[in-house]
Amino acid sequence: MSVLRLPKHIAYSQGLSNEVTKSLSDSTAQALTLGELLQFSVNDIEATPLQYSPVQGDALLRQEIVNFHQQLNCHSDTLEADNAVTFCGAQEALSAIYQALLKAGDEIVVLTPSYPSLVTMAKSKGVVVREIALSADNQWQVNIEDFTKVVNEKTQLIVLNSPHNPTGSIIDSTLAEQVLQLAQRYQCYLLSDDVSQASNYRGLTLAHGYLDYSKSIVVGVMSKSFGLAGIRIGWAVTPNKALLKILIAIKAVNSICCSKIDEALACIALKNSHAILSRNNEIISDNIKLFSALVLRHKKRLSWYPPQAGILALVEVKNIETMTAWSNALAKKTGILTLPSELFGLQGNYFRLGLGQKSFAQTLVKFERYLLETPPC
Ligand SMILES: Cc1ncc(COP(=O)(O)O)c(C=O)c1O
Hints:
There is one protein chain. The chain is α/β, with parallel strands linked by helices. The protein folds into two domains: 8-32 and 275-373, Aspartate Aminotransferase, domain 1, CATH 3.90.1150.10; 50-272, Aspartate Aminotransferase, domain 2 (3-Layer(aba) Sandwich), CATH 3.40.640.10. It has helices spanning 8-15, 34-38, 43-46, 59-72, 90-101, 117-123, 144-150, 173-186, 241-254, 260-271, 273-297, 323-334, 360-373, and strands spanning 22-23, 84-87, 107-112, 128-133, 155-161, 189-193, 216-221, 234-237, 302-304, 312-317, 336-337, 339-340, 350-354. The structure holds pyridoxal-5'-phosphate.
C-alpha cells in the first residue's frame, strides 16, 4: 500500500485546529455568500435540473471560461468552449495534467517555493524536479536566464504560477513570451497555473499568449481571485485536442463530472466577473496598505516585498529562533494562523501572508498587539 500523506500546509493547519480561530495566511480572496452571488441572477440556478453534468463540463460554463481567459490574455488563435474541461477545483485539474503528461524519469521545471502539490505530485511519481529557487535577495523575481539554465532536451514540462504562491511575484508579458519560445524550442509542455491572474489590482501586463502553442495548458479556478472556494469548480484550457481527450478520460474515472449546481454558480460568477473581481481587488489593495503601514511601525521585527499581484506575499520575521516555533506560539496566544514558508519549500523565517480577507484589519490589530507584547529575543 502506498503511503499517502496530507500536503504539509494542510497537515500543519489541521494540527493547530483547536487553537486557530482566524488566519493571516488564506490564499483566497473574500468569499461572497450564496445569497450575495444569487443577487446577480437567481433564475439561472432555479432552472438547473439536478442531474449529472457532462463529463467535460457544462457547455455554457466552458464558453464563459474561455471568454474569461481571452479577456485576460492575448493569443491570436480564438478558443472555443471545446478547448476547456472543468474539474472539481484547480487541484483536480493539476492532478489530471500531471497524470496525463508525466511518468517516472521525466523532468519538470518548477518555481520554488511553490504551491506544494506542484512539486510533490511529480516527486511521488519518480519525476525529476528541476527547481528555480526564488530568493528574497532578488525580491523573489525570476528571469529568462533562470529558465535557460534548467530547461533542456530532457524537460517534459515547465510549470509556471503567476502571480506566484507564496511570494506574490509575477511573470509579465515579456517574460511569458520568452518562456513560451523556450518551451517551443525544446518542444516541451507548458503549464500555467493562473489561479490568481485576475487579482491584478496594479494593472500590470500579465497577459500571455501561451495557448497559441499546442503543448500548453492553462489552469484557472473559482477559489482564488473570485474568492468562491465553496464553488468547487476549476478548469484546464488547452488548444491540444488529444490532451483534452485524455484529461476528460482521467476526470471520468476520478469524479465523473462536477456538481451541476456548482457549475451553474460558477457560470453566474464568470458572467459577473467584473463586479466580483473589482470588489475583491479593492480589498486586497486596502490590505496591502494596512500591512505596509504595520511593517513601517515594526521595521526591526518584520520585512516584506508587497505582492506585485495576487493575494499572497512572504513576510520575514526577524530575530526569532524558528518560524514554526514562532507561528505555533502566535496561534496559541492569539488564535491567528500563519503558515511558515518551509511548508512551501522555503527555509528561513518567513510566513505566507494572505491579503484577501475583509477581516484582515481586525486580525491585524490582534497581530500587532501580540508583537508589542512579545519583544524579540
Ligand atoms: C497556485 C495554486 N494552484 C492551485 C491551487 C488549488 O486550488 P483549489 O484548492 O481551488 O483546487 C491552489 C490552492 O491553494 C494554489 O494556490
